[in-house]
Amino acid sequence: MSRHEQLQSPLWTECAASRLLLMQLALVGVFLGTLTPPADAAPVCAAPVPGAAIEKVRGFSTVGGGWLVDARNGAFYVNDRGSMMSRLDGPALGPIDRVIEINPDLSLLVKNRDGSGTGGVYLLDAKDQNIQEVSGSEPLQVFLHGRLASGGFLLGADRGLYRIEVGSHQLRGLSKPVTGAVSVLQALDDGSWLVGAYYGLFRVDSRGDRVDAVQGGDTGAVTAIRRLSDGAWLVGPIAASFGSMPAAAP
User: How far is CA 248 from CA 39, 49, 90, 174, 242, in A?
Assistant: First the structure.
C-alpha cells in the first residue's frame, strides 16, 4: 500500500514507537538538522485496524479495556491491542464528558447537556457491542461521581444528586431535600458521603438511599470541604480560603 493510501485510511495503529516520540524527534530535527536514529532503535511500522469500515474519525474516549471511537458513520469500539474494531449498535454520541467504568465490559458514558439541551447517560456494553441510553436518563451537567457501597454510583450534577442503580443501571434523582448544584463529594470512613452544594451541606448514606441536610448553622453554598487533624470537617463557600483542598474520592 502506498503512503498516500495510508494517509487516506481513517484508522491506523503504529508499532514500536509512539506518535508523540516521532513528533518530538521531528521538531528536534528542525533545529539540529537531520538526526540519525540510534542503532538499537526499533523499526516503526503502521498497520490498518481490521474490522468494520469507518469514515472520518472525530474523537476517541478510553473505555474499559479499549477505546470508543466517534466517527461520521457511527460509534465503534477498538480493543486494547488495537487489533480489532467493531461497529456498535446504538447512537453515535460525539464527545463524551465522563466515562464511569463498571467492569472491563461495561461503562457508563455521560454526555453533558449541550447548548441545544441534549445529553444524557448511556451504557456501553463492549462485549455485546452496543450503546443504549439508561432508564431515567436526562440531560445533565455531571461534575462529580463516586462509587456507593451497593455497587452503584452517586452523581453530583447541576440539578442536584443522582444515583445509578446497581444491576439495572437506572438513573434516579435524589430530589429531597433540594441540594442545588453539587460542588463537592467527599467520602467518609463509614462509606457515607458529605456533599457540598448550592443550598448547603448534606450527607448521603453509604447505599445512596437517603439524603439529609447536616444540622448546624447556615453554611450558605458549600464549595470546599477539608478534614482537620481531629477528624472534624471544615466547610466553606470559597476553596481558596482553606488553601489546597484534598481531592474527592473517585
Answer: 47, 38, 33, 20, 15
Tell the residue number behind the cell numbers 506518535, with chain if given: 19
Structure-block grid coordinates of residue 29: 530535527
Cβ atoms of residues 205 and 187 within 8 Å: no
pLDDT of 24-71, one tens digit each? 434 344 444 455 566 666 666 665 666 667 778 877 888 877 888 888
Residue 52 is which amino acid? A
Domain shared by 235 and 186, yes or no: yes
The number of distinct structural domains making up the chain is 3
Q: Do 146 and 195 form a contact (C-beta atoms < 8 A)?
A: no
Q: What is the extent of the structural domain holding 161?
A: 141-250
| Dist CA 196 CA 222 (whole Å) | 5
Residue type, 97: D
Q: What is the pTM of this model?
A: 0.72
Q: How far apart are the first and last CA of the chain?
A: 46
Say which residues have a Cβ less than 8 Å from residue 170's Cβ, sequence separation at least 6.
134, 135, 136, 164
User: CA-based Rg of the chain, rounded to a whole angstrom?
Assistant: 23
